[in-house]
Amino acid sequence: MMSAALIELSGIERVFHLGDSEVHALRHLDVRVAASEYVAVMGPSGSGKSTLLNLLGLLDRPNAGTYRLAGCDVTTLSAKEQARVRSERIGFVFQSFHLVPRLTAAENIALPMILAGIAPPRRAERVARALRDYGLENRANHRPDQLSGGQRQRVAIARATIMQPALILADEPTGNLDRNTGEEVMRLLEGLNDQGVTLIVVTHDGDLGARARRQLLMADGVLEQDRWRSPRVD
Q1: pLDDT tens for each residue of 191-229
Q2: Biological process GO terms, please (predicted)?
Q3: Angstrom distance (rounded) from CA 217 to CA 214
Q4: CA torsion sign, 90 to 34 to 28 to 202?
Q5: Which end of the chain is more exposed for a tag (fewer CB within 10 A), N or C?
Q6: Is residue 79 assigned to a domain?
Q7: Residue at 134 is within a domain
Q8: Into how many domains does the chain fold?
Q9: Domain CATH code at residue 149
Q10: What is the pTM of this model?
């Protein structure tokens, strides 16, 4: 039996205007994702998967349709209210890490808590735990340019999860990593999913997408297939 819905998209449309032309990035999209699911959004460049990621992450708004997150219609919220929901409920992991270059690993991890106004003692405790959990204790005071790709992505995952979100959105999370390091990163993300965090991975990599229990296959802004597979075997 499927868990309660975390994400409900109904009739989502996203249109971009380029000069005199209209580009329909998403067309009447209906998707339901249950809490704790592991979903891969797949498709070629221009299929709409990145637009979908931005909408799910409240980085963009649809032109039409409804997006409910944990039962709340987030499409009707103000920009400030959306920012609060994003901070509390959604974690992002990007291909290019998106770490702040001048901040140390510990400071990058702490950043979401600073923005949320969490008190310094609590921040320090949670950062110390995250550094231990992700094997970064001896890299706490290193800036991103002093870290390997795998270490940078571990910092990014620690930052994405420090606010204990219900949803992690991962955009080509292994794209800048070698095979072994990419495997390590995916095991970290899948471990979070095993703990009940909903994981949505956006990728054009068929092998990466095949790891998920469910694949949403996009083409020209349309959901062409909603495919389920047997649970992964580690």
Answers
A1: 999 999 999 999 989 999 999 999 999 999 999 999 997
A2: response to antibiotic
A3: 10
A4: positive
A5: N
A6: yes
A7: yes
A8: 1
A9: 3.40.50.300
A10: 0.92
In angstroms, the CA 167 to CA 61 distance is: 18
Give me the average pLDDT of each 10-residue run along the chain (234 residues): 82 92 93 97 93 96 96 94 94 92 97 93 96 95 96 95 95 91 94 96 93 96 89 49
Which pLDDT score, from 0 to 100, does residue 4 have? 82
Sorted by sequence, the CB contacts under 8 Å of residue 4 that are 6+ apart come out as 34, 35
Residue type, 116: A
Q: Is residue 49 part of a domain?
A: yes
Beta bridge partners of 17: 22
Q: How far is CA 1 from the centre of its chain?
A: 25
Alpha-carbon distance 92 to 98, whole Å?
10
In a domain, 233, yes or no: no
State the Cα torsion 214-154-207-55 to the nearest 10°: 50
Contacts of 122 (CB under 8 A, 6+ apart): 113
For CA atoms 43, 44, 46, 50, the dihedral sign is positive
- Name the token pair of 227: 């495919």
Per-residue confidence (pLDDT) for residue 230, from 0 to 100: 61
- In 3-state terms, what secondary structure has residue 103? coil
Per the listing, tokens 């249109």 go with 15
Residue 28: φ, ψ to 5°: 40, 65
H/E run at residue 21: strand 21-34
- For the record, the structure tokens of 200 come out as 């949505």
Distance CA 124, CA 126 (A): 6
Over residues 160-195, the pLDDT tens digits come to 999 999 999 999 999 889 999 999 999 999 999 999
Q: Which two tokens stand for residue 180?
A: 């072994």
